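worker-03 picked up job from queue 'complexes'. Input manifest follows; two sequence lines, order preserved.
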Amino acid sequence: MKADSASVATARHPASAWSAAQQAALLLRLAPPLACAIAYFCAARIGEWLAFPGAPVSAFWAPNAILLAALVLAPRERWWIYLLAVLPLHLLAQAPDFPMARVILQYIFNCGEALLGAWLLQRLAVEPRRFDRLRTTAVLIVFAAVLVPLLTSMLMVGAFELEGLSDQFWLTVAARTITNTFAILTLVPLIVHGAAWLRAGTRSVPLWSGLEGLAAALLLGAIGLLIFVMPWEESLKPPALLYAPLPVLVWCAVRFGISGMCLSALLLGLLSTWGVLDGSSPFSGQNPMHSVLSLVSFQVVTCIPMLLLAALIEERRHTTQALHTSETRFRSIFQNNIVATAIWCDAGHFSESNESFLRLTGFTRAELEAGAVRCAELSDFWREWEQRTAGSQEAARIFGPAEIELRLRDGRVVPVMVGACPFGAGREGGVLYALDLSEFRRVEAARQLAENLHTAVLTSLHDQVAVLDRNGVVLETNDSWQRFTASAQAPAFHCVLNGDNLVQACILANRQGDPVASELLAAIRGVLEGLSSHRQLEFALPSGNSVTWFELSVEELRRPEGGAVITRTDVTGRKQAEIEARNQRQQLTHLGRAAVLGQLSGAFAHELNQPLTSILGNAEAGLRLLAQDKIDPVELREILRDIVHDDERAAQVIQRLRALLRKGELQRHPVSMNSVVREVLSLSRSDLITRNVTVLSELDPRLPLVLADRVQMQQVMLNLVINACEAMADMPPRQRRLAIVTRYVADTDVVELTVRDAGSGIATGEFEHIFQPFVTTKKHGLGLGLAICRSIVESHGGGLWAESPPGGGALLHLTVPADGDLGAAQDLAQLPA
Amino acid sequence: MSDPRPYVAVVDDEESVRRALVRLLRASAFDVEAFASGQSFLEALPARRPDCLVLDIQMAGLTGRDLQRHLAVCDVRIPVIIMTAYDEPMMREQCLADGAYAYFRKPLRGDALMASINAAITHGPRNSPLQNAARP
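worker-03 finished. Artifact:
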C-alpha cells in the first residue's frame, strides 16, 4: 500500500511541477497587461477626481497615455491582450457615472488613439523606445501627442453628437485633445525610459546627481507654489512671472535629460492644476472650461520646446560619446598596429606616427612633434611616391603595396612593403604604411638555403632515394633514382616516379607473383603502419649476362604526417666480395681439414693396412688349405666371412676419409655431438695408441641434437684431439690422459663439449692469443688450426675458448646452440654409411 | 711326445689379424699361438718358448718395440719378426738394429713371411746391442 501511494505521489509530482512552471510563465506574461489595466483604472479615477466642476473635462487625463506607453513597450502581436485587459477596468471606472454608449465609444476611441499612436511611432521613428533621440521625440509630439488625439477626439465627439451625448463639438474636441497631449508628452517617455531603466537592473544614482535633482525639484516646487498656488493681488500679478519656471525646466532638460524634463513638467502641471482648482491660479477665470484649456495649453506649450531641447542635448551627448569611443578605438588601432604608419602634412613633413614607424625609421617622437622629420628623408619612398603620383588622378594616386629598399638616416637599408594614399583632392598630406620585411627576408633566405641544401644533398647522393607519403605516393626522388628508372630493365614497381603510388605498384606486381614486390610491400607497409621504423631487403636484377645486386632499405619518415624514405643501393661489389670471401673461407677450412688429416695419415694407413693384412692372410691361408686339399667347409666359410668383414671395415675407413676431404657447400643437418666425438675417436684410434694417450669420455646420453655441418664439426673435434695429444707429447705415457665430456646447458640452451688434456697448460694471457691465425708452438704447422676451428664454431652460432683448469693441463670449451625443434638426440646418430 | 712342428707365437692387438695369421701359419704347418698383447705373451713365455715371434708394433700399453727391447734386455733369445701397419721413418732400421730378424709392412705376403720364419728358425736369433749392453 505504501509503495502504491508513493508511486502515485511521484507520478503526480512532475505534472504538478510542470503546471506550476506553466502558471508562473503565464503569470509573467500576463503581468504587464494586468499592470497596464490597473494603471489605466487608477489614472481614470484620478482623471475623474481632477475633473473641473462644471466642465466636461479633466485637467490631467492619463489613461490613454498609459495604454500608449504599454503598447510601445509590448511586441505588436500582444497588443490585443492589453486592449482586452483594459476593457473590464475601463467599464468599472466609467460605467457608474456615464451612459453605456458613451463608455463603449470612449473605450473604442481611447484604444484606437493608443493603437494608432503606437503604430506611427514604430513606423516613423527609427528607435521608437529611445526618446532621447530627436526624431523619436518629434514623432511623439507631432503624431502621437497632437494629430492622433485630435483625430480620435473629432471622431469620438462626432459619435457623441450622433448619439446625443454632446453638443459642444469643437470645445469638447479641443479639451480632450489638449489634456491627452500633455499626458502623452510627459508620461509616455517617462514610462518607456523607466521600464528600460528597470530592465537594465537597478543602478545606483551618483550622490551629486541625486542632490542636484532634489535641488531642482525644490526650486521648481517653490516657483510653482509662488506663481500658481499663492493668492496674488490682481494688480501685482505680472504675466511675465509665468516664464519664471523656464530656467529650472531648461536646467532639468540639460542636466537630467528627457526623464528629468518629464518629471519636472509633471510637477509643474500638478502645481498649476492645484492653483486652477483652488482659484488662485493666473489661469482661473469665469468659465471653467476656458480655465482648463488655458492651463493645459500653457503646460503643453511649455513642455514641447523643453522636450525637444532635452532630446537634442541627449542626442548630442550620445553622438559625442560614440565619437569619442570610435576615436579611442581607431587611435588604439593606429598606435598599436604592427604596420608602421605615419601621416604627413602639406608642408612635407611627418606630423604623426605610431610606435612601429618610430622603431622602423629610428626617428624620435620629439622630432616628429617638432615637425623636424621631412618626408624627403625617406628618399626611396618619397621619390617613388612623387614619380607615380605626378599628374595622376585622385583614384590612381593610391600607391602600393610595393616592395622597396628603404635607406634610413643611420645608413641602414631595410626592405619594406610600402603603401600610401593622399588626403583630400589636392596635396594636403597623406598617410604612409610600411611593413618591415627584414625578418621575412631572413626566414625566406634561410628556407631557400635549407631547400637548396636539401636538393643538393639529394642530387649528390649516389644511392637512389625516393620519399613516400603515408599512402605510399612518391613525393620526391633524387637524380640517381631517376637515372636508374630511365635506364634499368626492371619491373614497373622499381621504376615509380613522383606522384606514382609505390604501394599500389607493389600490390599489382605481387598479384603477378613477383617475390621481391611481395617482400617490398610488406616492408613498406610495416614502416608506414608504424610496426617498425626500419626494414631492409636485398634483391638481384638481371643486367646483361650478369646480375646486379641491390640493397633496399625502408626508413620511417620522421614527421607528424608520416611517410617513408626508400634508399636503393647497388651492392653488387660487396655481394661479389662476400661470395669471394665465403669461397676463400671454405677453401681455407678445407685446407685446414686436409692439414689435420695429413697429420693423421699414419693412423689412416694403419687403419687401412690392418684389414688389408687380415684379408690377405685369410686369402692365402685359404689358398694353401685348398692346395693341400684338406679344406674344411666350415673353416672356409669362416675365412670368407672374415674377409668380407675386413673388407667392409676398410671401406668404412675410406668412406670417412672421403667425407672429411669432401669440398663443397655447408650442409647443416641435425647432428649428435656424441656421435661426432665417437667418429673422431675412431678415426684417431691408431694415433692415440701410437701416442700412448688414454681417452676418458663422458658423453651425456640425453644430449639434444644441434643443427650443424657434420664434417666441419668432425674437423674441429679432430683438431682439438690432436692438439691435446701434441700438448702431452713430452709427458710420461701414463699421464697422457685425454678427457672428453659432453653435456647440455639448460640456462643458455647450448650443447657444451670440453676437451681436457694433461699437458703443460696454456700460459695466462694466451687464452685468446692461441686462436689468432699464424700463432703456433709447433715446428711444423701454419697455426691456422684453432683460428679455423673458432671461425667454424662461430659460423654455427657457438663459441670456442680456452681455460686453465685446476690441476693443470688445458681445457677447451666448445658450445653450439641446441636445436629446440629437434628434441633429444637419444644418442642414436650413427656414422654415415 | 712333443709337437715336431716349429712353434711360432703371434702378438697383435687386432683380433682379425691374429685370426688370419694363425690360419695362414697353421696351413703352412706351423704350430701357432696368438696373443692379444705383449703382456699376455710374457705371461705365457715361461711355460713355452716359441721358435719364432711375429710381433706387431702399434699396440696399446706395451708396444711391439717395448716387447722387443724387453726380451733383449732380459736376454730372451727368440728370433723376432716385426710387422707394422704404418711405416714410420727409420722404424725399420731401428728394429733391425735392435736385433729383429726381419721387418715387414702390412699387408704382408704369406710366402715372404713363411720364408722369413723358416730362415729365422734355421739361423736363430740375431744379436742385439741391447742384449750385449745388458750382459755384465
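worker-03 released lock.
The longest helix of chain A spans residues 288-336.
Residues 697 and 740 of chain A are 5 Å apart (CA to CA).
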